[in-house]
Amino acid sequence: MALQSTGDLFRPTDPAFLADPYPTYARLRREAPIARFEGWKAWIVTRHRDVDRLLRDRRLGRVMDEVPAPSAFPAFAAIQAGSLLEIEGAAHDRVRQVVHEAFTPRHVRALEARVVTLVDSLVDGLEARPERAADLLTDFAEPLPVTVIADLLGVPQADRGGLLPWSKAIIGMFEPERTPDMERAAERASAEFAAAIRRRIDAVRLVPADDLITRMVRAHDEDSARLREGEIVANAILFLNAGHEAVVNVIGNGMLALLRHPEQLDAVRGDPGLVAGAVEEMMRFDTPLQFFERLVLEDMTYEGHEWSRGTKLCLFYASANHDPEVFDEPTRFDVRRSKNPHLAFGLGVHYCIGAPLARIEVAAAVRALLERLPDLRLLTSEPAYEPRNVFRYLRELRVAY
Ligand code: HEM
Question: Fewer C-beta neighbours within 10 Å, C or N terminus of the chain?
Fold first, then answer.
């Protein structure tokens, strides 16, 4: 009989859990696959089949009311209010339609050459270091997606320095274990970030450019019912944040996995045809966004659980990605895995709009690092992760080459 409560099984602040959450997920899947965790006043869902089904279930969503309640963090609330990730139904369809074209596989393939050039110049930078050592996160994994997404949106060079610190502060607000300091930092960052985007909106109204902010401004100016002004700001910030945070972490967590499995590394180096599979396996093996929340929008019953409107669920994509019912030997890192229906990009209406772009960026990164740095190796055997539950990211990834 499955447990209804996580009891002692789930201790999200325990350093051992933060270092390696996967054994805990395995026990939860076996003993308490859908279980209440009072600490977060939420249900923790860990099996692939449940995460998959619940992500497609329209009785669940990210927000309950179209008009959000007054918030103690008005600047943060304002940038959430119209963001794709935080709207449902017709409003979500309307906004997604305006921006969809910028992220189609056809459109992002046109960016591939630029991504490859950028990756090459970053590897040039690594090669030029006399010490032949670097932090793969700050010296490579961060500048790549930040530059790609800032180019796509059209963020001026002068504002780019703010992107990483603003984004890091804002995503702190998604962590269930956040502190008041993290909340204040997120609020301040939201206000500064929104002001920078508004300046850019004013600038492209005077001198339009070939970028996504201009596209959104044009859609609004032609018909403000298609896209509201606040939605331009909210989504520009969402794209800039979502567009790099997870990519940094796939490169970081994924390269760590590759470097810890030298036979897999050699296989990919010897056969570029394996890169695409390696990228999927990197996302499955140590999933950058471990879970996302959903709210019950109307009273519902699921697998014997009766959930009233407003009930909170935490859907653990990272655990689903290690479910032995779906993945053979899930703890094995295997770039040749033939069946890999991982949920690292989510599923359903909020499925990651940036998935095609992310795949291009990570593949280009893996290809260049393996081809051009044949001696690439880890300098730390046990790299440490930030003490966070949603975003799984390394503090640093020291390598030599
Ligand atoms: C490997 C890198 C990436 C991963 C693992 C990832 C993961 C995810 C996940 C799990 C979701 C769904 C969240 C939910 O279920 O509530 C999501 C949504 C989203 N992602 Fe990504 N993402 C990545 C890269 C990107 C990139 C490059 C962009 C570029 C803009 C992006 C933009 C978005 C947006 C806008 C949404 C919200 C879509 C909606 O609600 O309609 N992501 N992403």
Answer: N
pTM of the entire predicted model: 0.95
Q: Pocket around ligand 1: residues whose beta carbon is below 6 Å from it?
A: 84-85, 96, 149, 238-239, 242-243, 246-247, 250, 283, 288-289, 292, 317, 344-346, 350, 352-354, 357-358
**Mean pLDDT, rounded, for 341-370:** 97
CATH of the domain at 366: 1.10.630.10
- Digit-coded pLDDT (tens) for 132-188: 999 999 999 999 999 999 999 999 999 899 999 999 999 999 999 999 999 999 999
Q: Provide DSSP, 41-76.
A: TEEEE--HHHHHHHHH-TTEES-S-SSPPP-S-HHH
Q: Which residue has the higher pLDDT, 71 or 140?
A: 140
How close is the Cα of 354 to the center of ligand 1, in Å?
6
Closest C-alpha to ligand 1, atom 1: 247
In a domain, 220, yes or no: yes
**Residue 2 in domain:** no
- Dihedral of CA 53/231/146/273: which sign? positive
* Residue 67 reports pLDDT greater than 70: no
Within 8 A by CB and 6+ apart from 123, the residues are: 140, 368, 369, 372, 373
Total count of domains within the chain: 1
Residue 216 domain-assigned? yes
Domain extent at residue 296: 7-400
Per the domain annotation, does 367 fall within a domain?
A: yes
